[in-house]
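Need a sequence for this fold. Nothing fancy.
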């Protein structure tokens, strides 16, 4: 016994897609066999059956219905599989022997064109790396929008990680070479996506496709770009007509933000639950289109370092802010625009339906309004867009005159082509309508002619139209005209020659109509596809416009100011705020100044208890610089920002257990990376260096890190520390200044003022913070005893007095403190039941934010009780 012909065909096809799950089309199902069937039945919870394959044992099999396959495919893609779709490519009724089948498409996580896995506000990237000992090249593409980027550098592995984390690709291809294995392992530690090896393929197709654009690429860039292109051709099996714009860029032309910093600053998602809410992107996103949202994300991921380019964006934003009326008009128009980037890709790939064309038309309808609005502006960016803005009138006219305004989803069921566009279509429609009218009147006419009141005209798929007469009335039928067709239990069905003729006309007309409508639709879609360059250019301009208006809107709403941009090393922020935290706690956010320069204010050493606001302050400085460099106004009263080439942050303890590194090891690797890569134009944020080891070790490391920055790197640095000993450095280095965050001691407790001041504190208030956090009073009392015995009673007394003296409170702070004092006076821990609630608090499971909010709510509750 040998394999059945179908199984032979299956195995032959499977040979060409060993790394994919093969969806093998059998009638109305996609079937999977052997190992694929076992995997899919497990992953998707499907029943594993078997099919006779000609061998003794049946082949394991499972299947999904063709019409609902998308959901199943999405689930597999989400789990990191690749799916090869194998279709019947000839009509089974015409096939001699077994139906011919071919793989028509390979769906992979990084090459999705449509479906629920594509997020509107996020590009879906695939990337290809060629990593050599001398450097690497990286190519990145979003097939659904047609964006294609290429870069290369002689930097090391860390730069690659940073660059990849900018794109966060869904799939990474590694070109096979001596470094490939090492790279695979390292990338797997960092990225939870599909990572595969590919053979280098410098095929001609790439050169032919991009023509002259490839001249700007060096050899290593060609290698990753051509290999990626080849992979896309193999998976998409189309000419990739939507990928037209090859953008080569230098990594160094943008602010370098390493992957930890992206994470720490919560640029596009929060650290804890990876949500957009709570990120900078969330605050800044007032875009009206998906294209704008994606562009905004890209801008946040890649801040500029060129003064001229930054100022161009800022000027455009300012002009929009100064013209609120036109800004609102622009927002109204943009709101009506669909995702033209992804629409045109679908149109080019031939997967767009008539509704997609109508969405494109409705979007184009807004373009003349937008051009009108743009005519009011003079800033370089906006007037450049105006001058080259194509309103695509011809494409609008084409769709408008040809496609019905409310077409069905399917492109094979007709009702797509508008009346008056094509005389043949109109003719068939008239024929079909007239025929149907004739039939509609037939029942009445025949009733009158025969006198049979119960006579009915009906239709079924097998016999077509018929006249039905009950057996009791058969004697009254005109035998010469009626031809018997079907006998039922108590009726007979007839046709007449005339009815048959009209029926033929209707059916032919409908058949021809469907065919013609489909052909015309495909032709129109092709004509629109031919204009892909023009449509993509407008889509890009719209995405920029939308991002700029989003900046303007958010700046107006949140009272941001236009930053001045300088290159003399001064970062001078007056009354700066944290863009995200101020949204969370609104009125109570305390603004702070920050002054950094290249000489006396290079390094700010910040002391203050936990929860005082050190991290918030440092992050807010970094975010304000970043916002200025993406061209957005900033949350401050006034800001003068020196362009920063890199931002580094070392914040919090993030255990990297999966990679076998301890918290302290991770911390030290991050510090080491920063010290090796920072320049004098960088901004460094250190939050508690040296915490993960013994006090003396930690202090020594923190101390020497600060000295190294002061002596060698000379980068502007915010350094928060609980090692008060470090504040001594101010006396040795003229570039170091001590700052502290104010707290007010009151009744054995402390109040956070969140105000940054010159000077140091030399008390940690650790026990007071622990008390506020709800640690049982027994623990607190014991801790105090231990502290006293550690420090010696007298000495600690002296120390606390000294600390209070060191906090210099100016008048404004004093007022705030008095307010708080009054509130706290009312707050009698022993009296009310709130105390119980506090002592039962599960503090370990709270974020600082939740803790803050809780404390804040407590204050309000107590106020209420006492008032
Ligand atoms: P630290 O780093 O000193 O431990 P954080 O910066 O984490 O303190 O701040 C602790 C909490 O205090 C934050 O959750 C935040 O809500 C609040 N906070 C910080 N800075 C301010 C401020 N300037 N105004 C109001 N609240 C603030």
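Here you go.
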């Amino acid at each position: 016994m040998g394999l059945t012909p179908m199984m032979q065909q299956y195995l032959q096809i499977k040979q060409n897609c060993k790394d994919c799950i093969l969806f093998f089309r059998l009638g109305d199902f996609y079937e999977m066999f052997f190992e694929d069937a076992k995997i899919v039945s497990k992953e998707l919870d499907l029943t594993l059956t078997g099919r006779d394959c000609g061998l003794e044992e049946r082949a394991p099999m499972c299947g999904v219905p063709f019409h609902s396959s998308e959901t199943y495919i999405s689930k597999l893609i989400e789990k990191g599989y690749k799916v090869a779709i194998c279709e019947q490519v000839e009509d089974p009724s015409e096939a001699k022997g077994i139906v011919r089948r071919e793989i028509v498409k390979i769906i992979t996580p990084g090459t999705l064109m449509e479906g629920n896995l594509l997020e509107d506000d996020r590009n879906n990237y695939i990337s290809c790396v060629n990593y050599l000992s001398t450097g690497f090249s990286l190519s990145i593409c979003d097939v659904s929008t047609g964006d294609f980027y290429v870069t290369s550098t002689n930097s090391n592995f860390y730069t690659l990680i940073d660059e990849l984390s900018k794109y966060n690709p869904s799939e990474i291809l590694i070109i096979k070479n001596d470094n490939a294995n090492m790279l695979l392992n390292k990338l797997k530690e960092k990225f939870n996506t599909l990572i595969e090896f590919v053979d280098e393929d410098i095929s001609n197709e790439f050169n032919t496709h991009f023509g002259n654009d490839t001249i700007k690429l060096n050899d290593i860039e060609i290698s990753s770009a051509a290999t990626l292109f080849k992979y896309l051709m193999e998976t998409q099996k189309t000419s990739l007509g939507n990928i037209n714009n090859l953008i080569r860029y230098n990594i160094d032309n943008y602010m370098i933000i390493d992957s930890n910093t992206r994470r720490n600053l919560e640029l596009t998602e929060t650290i804890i639950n990876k949500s957009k809410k709570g990120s900078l992107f969330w605050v800044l996103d007032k875009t009206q289109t998906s294209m704008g949202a994606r562009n905004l994300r890209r801008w946040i991921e890649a801040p500029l370092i060129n003064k001229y380019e930054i100022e161009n964006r800022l000027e455009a934003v300012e002009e929009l802010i100064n013209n609120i009326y036109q800004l609102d008009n622009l927002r109204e128009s943009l709101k009506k625009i669909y995702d033209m980037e992804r629409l045109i890709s679908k149109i080019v790939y031939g997967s767009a339906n008539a509704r997609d064309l109508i969405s494109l038309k409705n979007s184009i309808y807004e373009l003349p309004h937008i051009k009108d609005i743009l005519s009011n502006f003079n800033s370089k960016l906006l007037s450049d867009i105006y001058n080259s803005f194509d309103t695509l009138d011809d494409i609008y006219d084409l769709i408008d005159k040809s496609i019905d305004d409310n077409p069905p989803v399917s492109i094979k069921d007709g009702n797509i082509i508008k009346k008056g566009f094509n005389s043949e279509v109109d003719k068939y429609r008239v024929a079909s309508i007239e025929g149907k009218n004739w039939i509609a009147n037939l029942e009445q006419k025949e009733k009158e002619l025969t006198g049979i009141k119960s006579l009915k005209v009906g239709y079924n798929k097998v016999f077509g139209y018929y006249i039905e007469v009950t057996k009791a009335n058969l004697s009254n039928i005109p035998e010469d005209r009626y031809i018997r067709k079907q006998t039922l239990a108590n009726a007979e069905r007839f046709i007449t020659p005339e009815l048959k003729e009209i029926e033929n006309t209707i059916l032919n007309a409908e058949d021809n109509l469907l065919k013609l409508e489909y052909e015309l639709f495909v032709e129109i879609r092709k004509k629109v596809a031919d204009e892909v360059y023009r449509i993509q250019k407008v889509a890009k301009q719209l995405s920029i416009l939308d991002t700029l208006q989003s900046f303007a809107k958010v700046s107006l709403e949140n009272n941001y100011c236009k930053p001045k941009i300088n290159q003399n090393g001064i970062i001078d922020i007056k009354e700066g705020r944290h863009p995200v935290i101020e949204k969370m706690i609104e009125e109570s956010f305390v603004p702070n100044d920050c002054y950094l320069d290249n000489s006396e204010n290079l390094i700010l050493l910040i002391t203050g208890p936990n929860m005082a606001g050190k991290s918030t302050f440092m992050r807010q400085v970094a975010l304000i610089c970043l916002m200025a460099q993406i061209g957005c106004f900033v949350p401050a009263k006034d800001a003068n920002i020196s362009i920063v080439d890199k931002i580094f942050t070392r914040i919090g303890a993030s255990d990297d257990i999966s990679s076998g590194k301890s918290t302290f090891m991770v911390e030290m690797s991050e510090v080491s990376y920063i010290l090796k890569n920072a320049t004098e134009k960088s901004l460094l944020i250190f939050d508690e260096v040296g915490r993960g080891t013994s006090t003396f070790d930690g202090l020594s490391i923190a101390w020497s890190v600060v000295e190294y920055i002061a002596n060698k790197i000379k980068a502007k640095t915010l350094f928060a520390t609980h090692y008060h000993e470090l504040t001594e450095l101010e006396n040795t280095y003229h570039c170091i200044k001590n700052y502290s965050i104010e707290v007010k001691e009151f009744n054995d407790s402390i109040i956070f003022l969140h105000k940054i001041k010159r000077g140091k504190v030399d008390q940690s208030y650790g026990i007071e913070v622990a008390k506020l956090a709800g640690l049982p009073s027994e623990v607190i009392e014991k801790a105090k005893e231990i502290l006293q015995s550690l420090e010696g009673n007298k000495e600690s007394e002296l120390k606390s007095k000294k600390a209070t003296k060191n906090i210099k409170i100016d008048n404004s702070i004093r007022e705030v403190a008095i307010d708080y004092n009054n509130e706290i006076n009312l707050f009698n821990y022993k009296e009310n039941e709130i105390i119980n609630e506090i002592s039962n608090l599960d503090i370990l499971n709270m974020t600082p934010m939740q803790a803050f909010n809780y404390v804040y709510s407590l204050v309000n509750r107590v106020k209420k009780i006492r008032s």
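For context: Residues 497-529 form the longest helix (33 residues).
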